[in-house]
Amino acid sequence: MIWHIVTRELLDHLTSLRFGLTTFILVALMVTNAVGHLRTHPQRIRKYSEKVNASQTELKSRTELYALLQKGPGKLYKRPSSLAFIADGGNALLPDESVSGGFWRLYGLAYIWSMGVPRLNIEAISNLRPNTTVIDWVFITTYLLSFVPLLFTFDALSGERERGTLRLCLANSISRTALLVGKFLGSLITVLIAFYCAVLFNLAIISTGSWTQLGGADWGRVGLILLIASCYAGIFVAIGLIVSAVTRESRLSLVILLLIWVTVVVFTPSTLGTLSTEWMPPVQTHHQFQMTRGTAFDQIRSDFLNKRENLKERRQSAETSQEEVAGIDPSELEIQQEFVNRDMEMRERISRQHFAAQSAQVLHARRITRCSPAAVVQYALESMAGTGFNRHLQFLNQCRLHIQHFRNFIVEMDREDPESLHFIGVRKGMSEKPVSPEAIPIFEDKLTFQDTLNPAIMDILLLVLLLSVFLSGAFLVFLRSEV
Amino acid sequence: MFLTLIRQEFLIHLMSARFFAAVVITLLLVVANTFVLIGVHEERLADYSQREAVNQESIATTPTYSYLKLKVQRPPNPLSLFNAGLETRFGSDIDIAFDSVPSLSNPIIDVRPEEEQWAFGSEPSVSSPGAPLGLNNPYLRLFSQIDLVFIFQVVLSLLSLLFAYDAIAGDWETGTLRLVLSHPVGRGSVLLAKYIAAMVCLLLPVLMSLLLALIQCSFAPSLQFNTDDFLRVGGIVLTTVVYLSVFYLIGLLISTTTRRAATSLMLCLFLWVVLVLVYPNWSRFALNPGGDMRGEKRSADQQIAQIREEADRDRDRFLANTPLKGDPPLFFDTFAGVDFFRRGQWYLGNLPRMNVELRDTEDPLVTHLRRYYEFATTLQIRSAEKVGFVVQQLVVQTSLRQARWDERLMKLSPASLYTFVTAAWAGTDLDSMVDYIRAAGAYRLTLVDAFHEREAFASLRWFSTNQGDIDWSILPHFHYERADVGINAQRALPELFLLLCTNIVLFMATFLIFIKVEV
């Protein structure tokens, strides 16, 4: 019996004007998205590989161990995601390279490379072009896959009640459950037919480009993304059914639905996002951050100068001038080593703290905005596509791991050299043996399927939960409603 | 009869659920967003005064004329509450220097490695605005900001379509249309009555939310509007009414052409999605993607390289006739950047920014140095202006043209047109940013004049720190004044007129169709 209702609903919907309009808009948007991706993605990949190559050749040209430590592992770059067309995720704004934490040269010494606060691409927001949203799957899904289900369901129950067909229907041996499930599936399948049709166009265009072809794991991710999007559409079908079951008039039902939609989908994700940070402790301004770093550096420097003075005094009072071996004084080197290493650690610590405060705000805001399914689906899609803020955090983590690895490598190379004095961070105290370019660890920005799934799991579960809540809500409401 | 019609329509709308729900939602959104926006404005204001203080402090501690690093700022515009436009995104502070000219954007890429970019040796160049105000946590820009105009644009246009979709088609279905027209009343007056009643109803939520927003603002001491601002707000309200009327008339047109209210509703809603949500984003993405500007950039780069080379040649020629060569012995460094000199960079060459102590002012070399710096600085000012001109051409050809095209394309949708008109009223549009850059450029010129007047370029204090403190009160004061209402209106009116024309055309079309339609 359910299938009978489903097919009837499907036929009804498929021949309606709204289905035609929906398909048209979805296909147009998806084709635009695909064409845009075909145009931009090859450039992005080319730029990325050029930059990586340049940075690696520069890294390999350094043969001295000290230079390797001092200049650091070079710039580390974020690999562009092959699924960037699904979720742009603030791609233009988020930085795609690691940044150094500042430099100085004093007293014949030099800084050691440290990882600084990632610098956002302010150009992306402060350019002259009007503010627009990128047309990606996230845009299409969040706006249209929520709007269209409402148009298909607003009169599903209230319209039939108005016409009296609902009473007729229920006079037969059809349970209310069956009717509701039939309506739900009928509307959902109609919406998904239009959506999948548009997706097919999109993927077909994208697979024509040789640069943009998707790998096996990518197809798996696309499959999951489609499931998430369908789940999202299901939520709004259920919401539509709830309101439609409650109201007597289909007009009223539509008005209520539209206003719910505007609030939940258009306004909540952005308004709540900024609203929620109002009550959070403010982050340091850039100026304050620099001042903190400056004072910390001054402290370290004055410590160093004091120690050096002490050493000199001790030397003078001892005045034995115990011959330093070939002009190199181990205790002086030790002080120098402490100085540069403390400086490096301080820089990394302060940068990490600054970034942690910033990202805590963002994460908090994201948690709050999750009360809108539109935001949930956006975050899920971003994580699955390997873009957005989660991906950014992942990239920074990988950078940190790599830098640790890189420093360990240098320490080990230095330890292997018996002639070295093992003062890491000071030129005179380090091994002078040339390093073979092959041995230098190379940064590789990897993104496995698990990396994309793990941050998304939470959001996917939330979506499934919302779907079941609204669906059972629709049951309860419809069971209690008078026909 | 006409008045009765208006009153009846008005009461129907006023008591309808859609009106009530829409008003409640609008007011809620307005209150929540005003709260956020006031917070944002306060943050921007705090940032502004902090930066101002930092600038003042850095001026006060500047030891020589040449070492002056001056930044000017644009104070936050309180009307960004209504339409943020470029105001909250576009950079605020801009470097004012002898060797760089303010420009809207800086397409010249600095290819030097990061470490050396911090060095103070500078070539004639341009300076573009830095980070926008109040961007303590730039990551929050991942959440888009919503201004009051956006709320009107989305919610109230939806409401006006909801008023309009069944205005004719619904009456036709229920048969009331026939009943009404059986009275001695013209079809035109029926249409007009419906229009007037709906517009009055639409005006109510606008005024109510405006009132609420202003009350909220009055609690925030940082947000103060003057008379001109109220005139601008008046302009924004006027534009809002015209904009809502466009959507109402679109709905009315659809309603007269379709026989069933359900069909009319579907058409209205899809049209709304396209006009308000899809097209403004789609147009830029599909029709005006970032084109390939490398050709223009390369030729500009060549011109700039030429200008720089020419300046270098002039300077070398000048230096050839002076005894100034190499590392003059009369300097010793007071700053940490010694290594730059040691590395063999001839520091007379590149930088007229100096900060040294003179041991012996009677040394004959000092006179030569003074002459040299006077020459080099004027040369630098001149070549910076040349570079600035080239860059300005480039910006006009590339980013400015692109932005203007974006605007033109987006204006095909009344929703975007509305955004741009209100931005023009609020003074947060592209033209206002151009104004700001122009003001900064003019300020640089007055600064140069003030220095010329005091013969600062040839004085010892240009490069020497131990000649007594400099009286920095001679610096001309910079205060960016927003363009006055007249200019705002001039910028807003053409497009407002366009919106009005759309109204008239739509009304005429509806009227003609309605006259012919069978009841």
Task: Give the N-to-C terminal Cα separation of chain B.
Answer: 20 Å
Please state roughly what percent of the residues of chain A sit in beta strands, choosing from under 5%, 5-15%, 15-25%, 25-35%, 35-45% or over 45%: under 5%
| SSE class of chain B | mainly alpha
The major sheet of chain A is characterized as: 2 strands, antiparallel
SSE run of chain A: HHHEEHHHHHHHHHHHH
Largest chain-chain contact? A-B, 70 and 80 residues
SS elements, strand count of chain A: 2
The multimeric state of the shown protein is: heterodimer
The mean pLDDT of chain B is 82
In spatial order, strands of the major sheet of chain B run 1-2
Helix content of chain A: 55-70%
The biggest beta sheet of chain B reads: 2 strands, antiparallel
Describe the protein's topology.
The complex is a heterodimer of chains A (483) and B (519).
Chain A: H1 2-14, H2 17-60, H3 65-71, E1 105-106, E2 109-110, H4 123-126, H5 137-153, H6 158-163, H7 165-171, H8 176-208, H9 216-246, H10 250-276, H11 286-318, H12 330-369, H13 373-385, H14 388-416, H15 449-480
Antiparallel strand pairs in A: 1-2
Chain B: H1 2-15, H2 17-60, E1 70-72, E2 94-96, E3 100-102, H3 114-117, E4 125-127, H4 148-164, H5 169-174, H6 176-181, H7 187-219, H8 227-257, H9 261-287, H10 294-320, E5 331-333, H11 338-342, H12 347-350, E6 356-358, H13 364-410, H14 414-426, H15 430-453, H16 485-516
Parallel strand pairs in B: 3-4
Antiparallel strand pairs in B: 1-2, 5-6
